[in-house]
Amino acid sequence: VQLQASGGGLVQAGGSLRLSCAASSGGTFSSYVMGWFRQAPGKEREFVVSISRSGGSTNYADYVKGRFTISRDNAKNTVYLQMNSLKPEDTAVYYCAANGGSRSWTRVRPSEYDYWGQGTQVTVSS
Question: Are the CB atoms for 59 and 70 separated by under 8 Å?
């Protein structure tokens, strides 16, 4: 499956952004657990949130819980990340990823995901 992330940009602290990740070619989108990761300069890629195949279950990292919301529309082959109350420390390249080999939506390691989008830059100014 090919993933295309979009929606990043520059926003002031306290602002909001909505990221999208569209899937195309290869497999059935609803068969993939989807996740969002981020990577800041000089840091390792870190888990942000994941969502089950149906969209009924989610798993958030503590540092985004209550501020970010993941959702998916299987009819549109798209997963979304609504980011509210953004902080400068949220600045990073955000990547969407797909896990096709497991039903578990609690996968948090990048190595557990099979397919990756190209990333979209999110910059939060103070």
Answer: no
With tokens 């103070």, the residue in question is 126
In this structure, the chain runs to a length of 126
User: In this predicted model, which residue has the larger pLDDT, 26 or 121?
Assistant: 121
Q: What angle do CA 74, 80, 85 make, to 5 degrees?
A: 155
Cα(95)–Cα(48) distance, integer angstroms: 10
What's the DSSP call for residue 33? E
Q: How far is CA 40 from CA 47, 73, 89, 101, 103, in A?
A: 12, 28, 9, 27, 29
What is the arithmetic mean of pLDDT over 14-39?
Answer: 94
Compute how many other C-beta atoms are within 10 angstroms of the C-beta atom of residue 79. Answer: 30
pLDDT at 47: 98
Name the token pair of 75: 């009819």
